[in-house]
Write a structure and sequence with these properties.
binds coenzyme A
Length: 148
């Protein structure tokens, strides 16, 4: 299930974050700030663990209504199950959206492959965006509908 972030999700989100972005994880205060800035578009993917039988957080996405993807991550144990795709579809399925875009580390080939599969393309490069590493700016635009 995908639902809006709530404060009680924070501990599990931080676990995913630290494993997903070991070089530059967001901290507690940053997530709280983002939840205030994007209350409707900070979403979490929840599922019940077959082992613990508890409801767990397996992934999250934060984006602006203009289409800027601020962050997306899926727990390493639950990758390649389509969860990232479901989260990203929440952005690009918005009918009025004109574009969606994200910054990705040049070395993050897994994320690039993920975005390319979803139809994103590289639009530019920001040198040293991450201090010592470039960001690729990747962008998606809707396929124009044929008119008759
Ligand atoms: C990028 C990320 C969110 C993808 O989440 P996910 O749930 O594993 O993605 P999906 O299962 O929906 O993948 C859809 C498709 O994307 C491609 N893909 C996803 N991860 C990939 C990888 N590591 N290498 C190559 N292709 C990949 C595949 O084509 C995949 O389809 P397939 O599994 O049928 O081959 C996840 O790998 C992650 O959290 N990475 C660490 C955080 C990160 O880099 N976030 C992006 C920062 S900009």
């Amino acid at each position: 299930m995908i639902r809006p972030f709530s404060f009680s999700d924070l501990d599990l989100i931080l676990q995913i974050e630290n494993q997903s972005f070991p070089k530059s994880p967001y901290d507690w205060a940053t997530f709280l700030n983002l939840s205030t800035l994007y209350p409707e578009t900070f979403l979490v993917y929840t599922s019940t663990s077959e082992v613990s039988k508890r409801l767990e957080i397996w992934g999250y996405i934060i984006f602006s209504k203009e289409g800027h993807i601020i962050s997306i991550a899926v727990h390493p144990q639950h990758r390649r199950k389509g969860i990232g795709t479901q989260l990203l579809q929440r952005v690009i399925k918005e009918p009025s959206l004109k574009k969606a875009w994200a910054e990705v580390r040049r070395s993050n080939q897994g994320a690039q492959a993920f975005y390319f599969k979803m139809g994103f393309q590289i639009m530019g490069v920001v040198p040293n965006y991450y201090g010592n590493e470039d960001a690729l700016i990747i962008q998606w635009t809707p396929v124009p509908q044929e008119t008759y």
